[in-house]
What does this fold into?
Amino acid sequence: MATAVTQVGAAERQVLVMRFTGAERLAHWIHFCAFTVLLGTGLFIYVPWFQPFTVGGAGEAARLAHRVAAVVFIAAPLFYLIFSPRDFFYSLKDSFTWGKDDIGWLKNAWDYYSHGKMGAIPPQGKYNAGQKFNALTQIITFVLFTVTGLVMWFGKGAVPANVFLWSVVLHDLSVIATVLLFMLHVYLVAVHPLHRESITSMFEGTVTEEYAREHHGKWLADRVWRKRQ
It folds into this structure.
């Protein structure tokens, strides 16, 4: 009994660090929900079992849902920019900033994720190299989704046939790249035992200081420094 009380007391004394603002978290989940709807309705075209959902009233409903989700998908980062501009630009800058610590992460990532050997990983910023790669892919595919999607939505018959065809091809390739990274992302944040706080931080906004120091030490030090200015 005394041991249990001691453990609870120790847990209560853990220092929490704000990792994601409310605007960041809301934009993330809006983006996630919109992407899920887009993926589901888009698969109706490619999966034979779902072909009945592409004709008649069901087809109209699916296309409407896809277009509404597309508008929400495009609006999500704009929401983030408007309501949390400082964090938006900080995250954007961090995603595009690569250095020797990121190379060190890439070199040691396998030992870390497969054997839990964290010691060889250099201190990371707000995002580690893997998260930066994911973010860059998301940014690139977001642009491709938006441009090609608008061509497919409004350009049929108005743009040259080869432009429309390439839009479809690039749209599909973007889907494949995004889905592959999405599956890896879900595994790492929701299943992998070393990153459980990643998923809870997207609900609660905070991580323990211990987790921040271990996984994002450079970001934590920068955060402390900025607070003192």
Q: What stands out?
A: The longest strand covers residues 16-18. The radius of gyration is 21 Å. DSSP finds ten helices and two strands in the chain.
